[in-house]
Task: inverse folding
């Protein structure tokens, strides 16, 4: 038997003394001195977590959060920097919002990161649900933010997302590509190729086979470098409630990353395995499944309540809640109780935490566990102490099979 692989996912929540203080200090996310302190404190956390032998360290892609809730605009830069500060842990992001990105640029950037980390790199992709920034940065490529509500925007977003993820993988795994999707094509223009490239002769003779056509036009695109890992780094995909996301992951052997209650994870992980089997993958229960939780390991039940109020209530009430109306609404007591009842926030004393995590794994065993703390609203040392207690006391009580490494070559 083995233990789950632990990923620590962090994005700075700029600290304030409650909601009103955040308003009084507007725009807190634009406090340059505070960001400078936080981004270097982040490196200290990365080093400490690596020493605790976590499997992975990750962050997000979100932009323009001037109120300071989730400040993480460029995961690739952070991953590249972290690669020089960790010895064993993988680094990555959960993840790139590909509807707002050029897929070939993502393929290039992540391949470089895979080499910089010597193969200790994973890639996460997300559809993008925040119109505030996704509609701005996706304006030239058809990207539009959505929640999984079955609307026309939802369907459009999914089509862009799946098309571009496929293009990234194609660019990683093929010597050169000639791709024409509904929202992106390469070369551009696709029909004629790129005309008038002055150095076409040497590209024709020394570049990738078929890259230059008979008329000297660029007819194919060769993305260099290719990833260090073969066929490519592990791929995680964020999922909140959509069965279509699980279908997409299962067809391709990707790792769904569940931001949802335990019952949904249990249901979807079974469904994932059924769809994966129909697509030629022989995964065991829990294999290639990643559950996301916000933990607190505290001295008492009252201390758990205090931490939820002090570190999590503001962002849960004012930021997560408006995006996800299924979250509890009401006064502070109602919202805090809803956070506890959701089982997404999981904690209490060491013994209570062990029992809660064991109960979770009885319903939904997972190969990966992603832990999120609302640092820097929660002080660094307090957050690291909770991580240490989880790794030393809780994790050894969680058992999963020693899963074999599956063949998930691009299909």
Result:
């Amino acid at each position: 038997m083995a233990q789950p692989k632990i990923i620590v996912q962090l994005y700075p929540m700029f600290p304030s003394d409650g909601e009103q203080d955040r308003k009084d200090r507007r725009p807190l996310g634009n406090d340059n001195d505070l960001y400078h302190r936080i981004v270097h404190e982040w490196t200290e956390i990365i080093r400490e977590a690596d020493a605790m032998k976590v499997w992975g360290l990750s962050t997000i892609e979100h932009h323009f959060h001037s109120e300071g809730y989730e400040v993480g605009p460029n995961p690739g830069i952070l991953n590249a920097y972290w690669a020089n500060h960790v010895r064993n842990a993988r680094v990555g992001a959960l993840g790139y919002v590909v509807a707002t990105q050029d897929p070939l640029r993502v393929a290039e950037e992540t391949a470089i990161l895979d080499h910089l980390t010597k193969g200790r790199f994973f890639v996460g992709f997300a559809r993008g649900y925040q119109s505030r920034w996704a509609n701005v940065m996706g304006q030239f490529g058809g990207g539009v933010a959505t929640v999984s509500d079955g609307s026309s925007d939802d369907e459009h977003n999914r089509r862009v997302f799946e098309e571009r993820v496929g293009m990234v993988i194609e660019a990683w795994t093929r010597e050169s590509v000639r791709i024409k999707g509904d929202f992106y094509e390469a070369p551009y223009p696709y029909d004629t190729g790129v005309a008038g490239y002055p150095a076409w002769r040497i590209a024709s003779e020394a570049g990738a086979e078929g890259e230059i056509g008979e008329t000297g036009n660029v007819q194919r695109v060769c993305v260099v470098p290719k990833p260090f890992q073969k066929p490519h780094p592990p791929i995680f995909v964020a999922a909140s409630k959509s069965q279509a996301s699980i279908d997409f992951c299962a067809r391709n052997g990707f790792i769904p990353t569940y931001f949802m209650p335990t019952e949904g994870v249990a249901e979807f992980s079974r469904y994932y395995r059924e769809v994966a089997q129909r697509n030629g993958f022989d995964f065991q229960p829990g294999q290639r499944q990643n559950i996301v939780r916000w933990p607190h390991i505290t001295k008492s039940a009252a201390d758990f309540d205090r931490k939820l109020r002090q570190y999590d209530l503001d962002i849960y009430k004012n930021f997560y809640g408006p995006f996800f109306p299924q979250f509890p609404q009401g006064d502070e007591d109602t919202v805090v109780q809803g956070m506890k009842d959701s089982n997404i926030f999981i904690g209490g004393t060491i013994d209570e935490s062990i029992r809660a995590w064991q109960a979770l794994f009885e319903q939904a065993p997972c190969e990966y566990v992603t832990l999120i703390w609302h640092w820097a609203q929660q002080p660094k040392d307090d957050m690291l102490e909770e991580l240490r207690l989880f790794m030393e006391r809780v994790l050894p009580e969680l058992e999963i099979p020693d899963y074999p490494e599956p063949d998930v070559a691009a299909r």
The domain at 5-172+224-397 is CATH 3.20.20.30 (TIM Barrel).
